[in-house]
Write a structure and sequence with these properties.
The structure is a homodimer of 212-residue chains. Chain A is of the alpha/beta class. The first copy, chain A, is built from nine helices and six strands. Helix content of chain A is 44%, strand content 10%.
């Protein structure tokens, strides 16, 4: 039995893109930010995330310029790294995930915080001008903001998509209220996740979703 | 400046779990399915996904038994594999992702379908009794259903979380309408994604979310 469904990658792309354009409210975005929003919507299947994005107007431009200049992508978990489409990256950029570094459990105990937050401390030597993608842990985003307040060099862009019920909405609100001089993009509220964080990186790297 | 937020992993876990239990409608689930639903909700930050799950009542038991017996986990994309917590797996189970196999682009062209669908054909030798986790491509789930209709051996459980605007809702509805003798769990509608697919595997492997 042959089921009835669309098999052509180009047709799938067109139909999906048409649905997003028809349903999502994109009029408040510049074209480059609209492309980012479209990719985020593709990643999660929810058109209303467009209404809940907080951002600095220059985040797409600054994020893309940073990647083009060779900036690394710092991710709070392996899934974010796994979702980044390598061939999009303009400079074979490093994708760095420190969460599973052997030093992290001890650092977390010593600091009295989560492993996700402690892992951020290992970004110190790569943070300047980097693109940060947080797709899981609110504590990673909070910890980064604290380190920036303490004088760390600044990343070029912070993509804030921690998810869940404890600190996710609050950490993203803290970022949007004071992005510490960084360009940023964040999804307000509890929703988020690694797929959206990866999609944001892919959008900064490549613009609109590709076919396939 | 020290920001005010919860840093204790155990406290984060307790608070998050309490919120999910307070807000989500879990009364229609058996305890083992409720544990799966809680993990899915944790992964996405949306309590209402509990209301949109389709499932066979034995999916948690059959999925766990398959993993305990050493069944592989077949994933439609790398992100799903990256989200599976290895230490939960009861038998050092293989995690198999064929999407980036060098044969896939040609197979997709020859079959007139997507790479995601073609990659399913490379599951043939490992499908019997396996746990299948689809977290991205509707065409992968549709293609699997067609292969099962054509007489393939059956996986133990199908976790259906393809996402998006073209075929996602339809492929999951097709699974729920006729799961082809497999245990299954699926999120109806457009929502889904790799984080939820991984969370479903982790729940089958380990039950309730751990602290941290």
């Amino acid at each position: 039995r042959r089921l009835h469904y669309e098999r052509d990658p180009a047709a799938i792309y067109r139909a999906s893109f048409a649905t997003v354009r028809a349903e999502a409210r994109l009029d408040r975005f510049t074209p480059d930010l609209a492309a980012v929003a479209v990719r985020l919507i593709h990643a999660c299947g929810m058109v209303d995330v467009a209404d809940r994005l907080a951002f600095s107007p220059d985040v797409a431009a600054r994020g893309h310029a940073a990647l083009a200049a060779g900036a690394p992508v710092l991710c709070d978990c392996e899934m974010v790294g796994a979702g980044i489409i390598r061939r999009y990256l303009p400079a074979e950029n490093d994708i760095i995930v420190t969460l599973n570094d052997a030093r992290v459990p001890r650092m977390a105990r010593d600091m009295g915080t989560t492993r996700s937050a402690a892992a951020v401390d290992l970004w110190r030597d790569r943070i300047e001008g980097a693109v940060v993608a947080v797709g899981n842990a609110p504590t990673a985003l909070f910890h980064l903001l604290e380190r920036l307040d303490a004088g760390w060099p600044k990343p070029a862009a912070i993509l804030g998509f921690p998810v869940g019920f404890v600190g996710a909405a609050e950490s993203k609100a803290a970022l949007a209220a004071d992005p510490r001089g960084c360009a940023y993009l964040a999804l307000r509220g509890r929703r988020g996740g690694s797929a959206m964080a990866s999609a944001a990186v892919n959008a900064l790297a490549a613009g609109l979703p590709e076919e396939g």
